[in-house]
């Protein structure tokens, strides 16, 4: 047998068969066609680059799949194949409860006794954890998420079951084959859920599918077949072969009553960025974009992640070390969700037209449905709670008996590298322009916040991107984060100024003939709050002033601003 490799195709010639393979964007797809011997069984009979209408394959009682022209796109999805056989993928469903948190029980939808003899209870919430490409249920994050969910169930007495979906037999390379396998695993998952509904009393509204990467779209395939699935949480849903495709190919808001999405690796090739693994496209009711959904703190190879690889290799093994190196941004969505389950810090995000608007401080007030909680405690958007017969008024929505709900859309927030969850603070720095001031000065600015009850935050960096130019007479809006919360009203602010001289910029040199002081008229501080009703929004914005008309801050100096000095 002889194989010739050509950039666009492979032609294999033997006395028995012809095999053709096409090089796709990510891998090779192989098809074998019978040649002479009638007893030879072909693996596949379709050429994947030629879309056929109404090409269908059935898989027993779980249903059928087809490949039609709408599954093809010249750029986004040029190749399609059918899934591997069921016995090859070998999908398993492993149940964990408070009574068996460490040793799972296998649920077989075709074996009723496997469910009756397990710890499954129909009146409890059911959380499905679904891994993605080149992943298995043995990954550390799967165990961590399962444990956090069961701990939450125990502490809050909510009654929760966790089912881990094991499709490791189908998540291996090639990627095009793995994407096809998700459709079959979606059938398997839908079949199990429908059995639990029809024969064991499970309510579809109590089902919560949590899928990472390909697992997010896999969840969508299941939700498409089971009516009224309560919630799908998509953790950085996979981009290749899904973004830009019709809704029946990918995750979309019709796949569950509530879909929340966390985007953390949505870098685009078309924007001349290093391509990410995750989607940038909105595909849920609430789409969260921490740090613009792209580069996550601590994940750049120039940052500390590369230095952590040897330690991770020793502690967690080569698999986790490879995640740190190659998929840090992609996996960050998983870690943010896990941290949100029982963490003391809430991931508050703002609905905003863009991340640039958010970092410019233009979207900061938590009222009128403009804020939402990212992660486990995300809530259903208001627009989706309404129906044709709804008579709820604005007063009902603002009442104590009606839940606080966000509006659908894009939500932005900043997170840190350690800890992930951060509090957001917005500063409005109003500069004075006395006659002795230079037109502009360049340097670093930091702040300390002090509250009425003696709490304080020090060393808040107001120039996180490095040295910044400040023009006297103008105002600057700066949004920064800190892991600590200053819950009380701010009654004092301390500004620290450091002028920077750059020999490459002669205009920044300030020795004897210029003034390197910064002149500040006032400082306003807003502290981002939890989502609240507009009529009950607590005022925590505060304008503070120096005791004089303006503060004269020399380089390496500081000045203090008070909340009662602006009333003079």
UniProtKB/TrEMBL annotation:
It is found in: Secreted. Residues 58-387 form the Lipase domain. GO terms for molecular function: serine hydrolase activity; triacylglycerol lipase activity. Pfam families: Lipase (PF00151). Its main location: secreted. One of its GO terms (biological process) is lipid catabolic process. One of its GO terms (cellular component) is extracellular space. Keywords: Disulfide bond, Secreted, Signal. Residues 1-23 form the signal peptide. Belongs to the AB hydrolase superfamily. Lipase family. This is CLUMA_CG020119, isoform A. It comes from Clunio marinus. The lineage of its organism: Eukaryota, Metazoa, Ecdysozoa, Arthropoda, Hexapoda.
